[in-house]
Design brief:
With 419 residues, the protein is mainly alpha-helical. It is globular and about 70 Å long. It is built from 18 helices and four strands. The chain starts with a helix and ends in a 9-residue tail after the last helix.
Length: 419
């Protein structure tokens, strides 16, 4: 049975198991929920174990194998342009749909009193208290870490990528045997990391089962009912970006059949859905893009690690919709200039969201502070944030993979998605 079918079955079984057992069912002191947590954490730890050496080796090899440094500027320009464009489009889709559907207003009245705060927000408020637009500077400061080993240990991928870019750039300037030996070493490291990824992927169905069952068991399905309008507005916007915008780019810019790319990326999409982490899914994304889609290692090893850190289409879209929903829930009618400010802030914060404590919730707090809304409004979305996090991460990963395919095609790689 192919891997994606195994993962599909694992997700279906996980939903059934989570609904049936909840957090309290078990045999004596043995709780099924603890088993879900163990299996999910073990799989996630195995993926995270691969991230640092995989990102570093893939970026260094991606640049080192180019041969000519002139190609680096061209490839980097295409990559950054693609990421900025798709993130902006995603935000505008979310802004348009949230203005049309108005999930924060029901029967002409703001939903604040009807919904209420769905959870105790004291912990979240404590984490984000005092934060504001000045935190954006931290995104750029993290690009140049004082200690690259500490940055890797703390999961600061922006610093790791910046170091890898510099290392690969100056590696290309070496000549003779020193360059060959060093490049051969990093290519060997990358090969080993991909083989380790294949091993971890053999246990993906078990890990996915644990991750999804844990979420369903703890959240249940009833938590979504009070926020159904918001929940489905976000899902609809994500679906438009995933199934309309991305296929159009693949077809008319990349010149490939979108259906083939969807098929190639199924394992990565299902893994990203269960892990809620673009970085943790990166090993599988690289494997799918290279082995299933046929993108060269030269392109994928540069585009994908960068995308896993700075390209967050789904996250940017979610931040925009969430901020607008909270504004509507409080009865605030935002002007076009204020909505434009939300678009810009969502675009910038989504770039560094993976490195900010409390993830997208902190990014949303920056937007709320910018437009003058109380931070307690974040409590309105806590009940459904976890599941929507799973969905938006899948959009992030698919956009990264589309970028790799499109850029590879513009670089003259004719073998991409050719059957």
């Amino acid at each position: 049975m192919k891997l994606h079918w195994q993962i599909f079955i694992a997700i279906a079984l996980a939903v059934a198991a989570g609904v049936t057992t909840g957090e309290t069912a078990g045999i004596g002191s043995f709780l099924f929920y603890d088993v879900y947590v163990f299996l999910g954490t073990l799989f996630l730890n195995a993926l995270k174990m691969l991230i640092v050496p995989l990102i570093l080796s893939s970026i260094i090899c991606g640049i080192g194998n180019m041969g000519e440094l002139s190609g680096l500027g061209r490839l980097g320009g295409k990559t950054v342009s693609y990421y900025l464009f798709t993130s902006t489009v995603a935000i505008l889709i979310g802004l348009m749909l949230v203005n049309i559907i108005e999930p924060g207003i029901i029967d002409g009245e703001p939903v604040r009193d009807r919904v209420g705060l769905s959870a105790d927000t004291s912990e979240i408020t404590a984490k984000i208290e005092g934060r504001g637009a000045s935190d954006l500077s931290g995104i750029f400061l993290r690009m140049v870490p004082t200690n690259i080993v500490a940055a890797a240990a703390q999961g600061q991928m922006l610093g790791l990528i910046f170091f890898g870019l510099l290392f690969g750039y100056f590696l290309c300037q070496l000549v003779g045997q020193r360059k060959e030996v060093l490049l051969s070493f990093w290519n060997a490291v990358l090969d080993v990391m991909m083989k380790m990824t294949d091993l971890v992927m053999k246990f993906a169905p078990v890990g996915v089962f644990g991750l999804v069952a844990k979420v369903v068991a703890s959240s249940g399905l009833a938590a979504f009912l009070p926020l159904a309008y918001f929940f489905f507005t976000v899902l609809f916007a994500l679906a438009v970006h995933l199934f309309v915008i991305m296929p159009l780019l693949l077809r008319f810019v990349g010149g490939v059949k979108p259906s083939r790319h969807f098929k190639a990326m199924v394992p990565a999409l299902l893994t990203s859905f269960s892990t809620s982490s673009s970085s943790a899914t990166l090993p599988i994304t690289l494997d799918c893009v290279e082995n299933n889609a046929g993108v060269s290692n030269k392109t994928s090893s540069f585009v994908l690690p960068l995308g896993a850190t700075i390209n967050m289409d789904g996250t940017a879209l979610y931040e925009c919709v969430a901020a607008m929903f909270i504004a509507q829930a409080y009865g605030l009618d935002l002007s076009y200039s204020e909505q434009f400010l939300i678009v810009i802030t969502a675009l910038v914060t989504s770039i560094g969201v993976a490195g900010i404590p409390a993830a997208s919730l902190v990014a949303i707090s920056i937007i709320l502070t910018t437009i003058g809304l109380p931070l307690e409004g974040i409590g309105l979305i806590l009940a459904v944030d976890r599941v929507l996090d799973m969905c938006r991460t899948s959009v992030n990963v698919f956009s990264d993979s589309c970028g790799a395919v499109i850029i590879a095609r513009t670089e003259g790689e004719d073998q991409v998605l050719r059957g």
